[in-house]
Structure prediction request, 189 residues.
Amino acid sequence: MSMKRLFLSSAIGVYALLSAGSAQALLLNASGTIEFHNEVDIYTGTLTDDVFNVRIWTDSFLNAFNFDPIIALWDSSGNLLFQNDDNPTINPSTQTYYDSGIYIPTLAPGDYFFTVTSFNNFANGTNLSDGFLYDNETPIPIGTWTNGSQSFYNVWFEASPVPEPATMTLLGIGLGGMMLRAARRRKAS
Prediction:
């Protein structure tokens, strides 16, 4: 298994400073290659703030030009949170039919592991320490394993920051004002 520093790192905190109150989503990307059928790339990282509407996806399958990726998200203890082989609905503008995708409504601050493997090298259990299906096999080059497919992948992570209390207050005031104005219009009619 190869270990890499996850693209999340402290990016949420940096993003909050750079966005200065804007409601733009955080969008990060990692790329790599899976050279063998039993290879597992493991990324590590930390979220410093709550995020919501988390979407994680691959855009690597390319309608059989590339291998079929499997992605998984694990907590700091190595417990499996989500694993997906085929879900091209997370970002249909870039994904093709065997790309992976995960949607998570909210994700708390903490340390996480993220893995990328090739189909059908699924996790052996619910903990990262359980390993993967093909761990003890002799490595087979991905081009042989998948009938000539390439070995590169892209993984995308998109999330929205949780609005700060001041933002929520302003939103509440704005919505309250709109409701009051609508009520006055109805009363006047």
Summary: The chain has a mean pLDDT of 80.
